[in-house]
Amino acid sequence: MTQHPPEPRKPFYGMTDEELATVPTVYHPELFKGQVVMISGAAGGLGRGCAFLFARLGAALELCGRDGEKLERVAEKLRAFGNPVHCTPLTIRDPQQVADFIAGIWARHGRLDVQLNNAGGQFAQLALDFTVKGWQAVIDTNLNGTWYMMQQAALRWRDQGQVGNIINMVAVVERGNHGMAHTSAARAGVIHLSKTVAVEWAEHKIRVNCVAPGAVETPAFGQYSDAARPTLYRTNPMLRAGDLMDTAEACVYLAAPSGKFITGEVLHIDGGQNLWGDPWPAGKPDYFKFKD
């Protein structure tokens, strides 16, 4: 009889600040020395993991998110690595706030080397239960907000004659994301937007790629129902969840010289979920459950 690995039992889902600051990495500690990296949604989850790794690798950081206090708490830890960290509270749904933020980066540094668009939001719910407000909120954040960031950075890179690098955090959507149709639609839009502008912007030396995490353990795991949470560890053929460093190191790979000949691609960090898996973050309906 096949034995499935048990769901990990932790008081905190994900990795602590101490773990993110010290866990071994394959990358050189000065890989991004002298470079500026922007990360949206950096106060928690995947963005926080990426912020720690880029800080450890010498980058000056420009962080943004909706909660300024949370951002500053993360920034305090990141400044211990000796690099500048600037925080800007904003909502990426507002194109003017985004434009002001990107302009501020150039005012402070005169450059931006990597833009990591991680900010987003969604909630687990079956599609027939969506309200108009809920649908619009997810689309506006995950698709429109990402686009506002991309375009503002690309305009600056083009006008300044600087090399640009965009990495968009998306989701595994090839086979659908049942129970999250709103974010599936938005993230699929970001993927094909990225593929399109990767060609359009190649002449400006701007690379555009996506990272698609599957079940990567973050504090958001604790928000799922008791019925849905265990399924997150069984949505891929490896029958486990990834960790924050899996995603962070993938972003670094695309941002570093290792990714210099990669553009318009989607890098899956999902344990094979895009090939096999049955995620139902809102809970699997009885219709799809095996019956005797």
Helix content: 25-40%
Strand content bin:
5-15%
CATH homologous superfamily label? NAD(P)-binding Rossmann-like Domain
Note the total helix count: 7
Instruction: Quickly count the domains.
Output: 1
Shape: globular
Task: Describe how the helices and strands are arranged.
Elements (H helix, E strand, L loop, with lengths): L16 H6 L13 E5 L4 H12 L3 E6 L2 H11 L6 E5 L5 H15 L4 E4 L14 H29 L3 E6 L11 H20 L5 E8 L30 H12 L10 E4 L23
Parallel strand pairs: 1-2, 1-4, 2-3, 4-5, 5-6, 6-7
How would you describe what is shown here?
Helices cover 36% and strands 13% of the residues. Strand 5 (164-169), helix 6 (181-200) and strand 6 (206-213) form a beta-alpha-beta unit. The protein has one domain: 3-Layer(aba) Sandwich (Rossmann fold), CATH 3.40.50.720. Helix 4 packs parallel to helix 5 (132-160) and helix 5 (132-160) packs parallel to helix 6. The protein has 7 helices and 7 strands.
